[in-house]
Protein 1
Amino acid sequence: KELIEIYNLLKKNKCWIILDLIYEDLSYLNHNIINNKHILNYEKLILVSGFSKSYSMTGWRIGYIFTKNKLLDLMFKINQHLITNVPLFIQDASIEALKNHDNQIKKFNKELKLNYEYLLLKLSKLGFKIPSYVGGMFIFIDISKFGLKSDIFCEKLLNEYKVAATPGIFFGSSWDSHIRISLSNYKNEFKLAINKLANFISSLKNN
């Protein structure tokens, strides 16, 4: 509903729409957000996506653009002078990823959901208010109660408990009161890391 409202507003003002779908498949509800024919047929729509998130092909740099506009021809002319080609082994891997799309995505989303639920269980007991998530592989945790800048918090967590998290300051000064946790890890390793994070938080509370 919200997406349709935004689309109608942009269409009314004849705006270009560049829609980044790189995280589209990572939905715990296995819900496709782009299934509206009116949006897909919009003349000034450009869809961009890739294989790095859904298929863990980060670093292989393969993606795609969909548009019905003649702008695609101009993009192609620029692109062919920027890169030579996608290596064959990456093309083969991408084909296999598409062939096994449904099974792979459902399995990945199930793992992400289980990790999210475990994080929710552990940190809620420590008084954290965890946002309600229905998808994605990252979650931000508010650490403002400890009076530590996010980079200091993450440095202490890494040095004392050997757990890596991303300082919120990397996403702008307004996020310095948060850290980012990745949900995309094997279940047992993720549980171990969250248990250590919980112990670290408990130690801060006791100081």
Note: The first strand starts at residue 17 and ends at 20.
Protein 2
Amino acid sequence: MTQEAIYVRIMADLQKRIDAEQFSALKLPDERSLALEYGVSRSSIKRAVSGLVGQGIIFKKRGSGTFVNPLYLKNKSMFRSVGSNLGVSDSFRHHGETPAIHLLSAQVHEADEETRMALFLEPGEEVWEVQRLRTLGNTYFMIENALIPVKLIPLASKEDFKYSMFHYAEKATKKSVSKSFVTVTVEPSNEFDQQMLDLNVNEPVGIMAGIYFLDDGTPFEYGTMRVHYKYMHYNSFISMDGE
């Protein structure tokens, strides 16, 4: 098993144990004890712990140890997790419902200059351009537009985009989509927004535009989500300790 797979496996297992509230007083064992328990190196444990800290699931208190974030236990859906961490299916929930996907189009074409800059592509390289609708029950609440380098998912077909792209990326690349740079804005809805999201002419739409990265730093997707304002709830975990 590769070093990458080891730390990802440990992160997933620790999160399952956290979800099951197996750690007394919300305190995790120290890194040396975890290394012995899992039979791996301290560096693998350190990387797994750092990953969970970065997601806001646990935090380190100097001189005291590593603890589960109690806010995570209260509202797990707003915190990221390995693999599906940044995906719409895990981030947007309403009354317990999980969003479904309706694929509008998926086609391959040469990346334009803006896309090449965002995804660090060379002239002539191709991208998948995907447009999808997200639904909760019978309600469309989001229009999703994504550009993904073909070279990262060379075996993908149009059918694959009917499901989670981030889950597919994890299987295809053996890496997780774990980082993003996202800009959140609001603007007047256009005719397509109004038609698809059942908005009135004077109603706004939320915009979440950004670049999503694999955990090795490779840009995976350059995309935009246009969200019905009633579903535009944005949560963020911000680390202030500089670690």
Note: The helical segments are 3-19, 31-38, 42-54, 70-74, 88-91, 113-119, 165-173, 191-197.
